[in-house]
Task: structure prediction
Amino acid sequence: MEEARELELIVRQDQEDLLAVLQMRFGVPEADVEAKIASIHQPDELQRLILAACNAPVWSVFAEELRAGEGAFKLTGERFNPVSQTAFDQKGDS
Result:
């Protein structure tokens, strides 16, 4: 029982961290994004999304990762360069 409670606390903290990173990077997430994040209960998935949120140069790249679901795990290449030219070219992308 204690292990389940600990996992629940980790998941809740990761969900809050992900929402905080998204807000800092891209503004307040829409309700459907918040609901999607609230439905994720796997710490590995949430941690992958936190990395994606930190490194995606524009919202659309992060949104693709959010839609990819469990099992997506490669966050490499220019797509995940937070200072790529894409970030400057698509500054208004949301």
Observations:
- Residues 2-26 form the longest helix (25 residues).
- Residues 43 and 87 are 28 Å apart (CA to CA).
- Helices lie at 2-26, 31-38, 43-55, 59-68, 85-89.
- The radius of gyration is 14 Å.
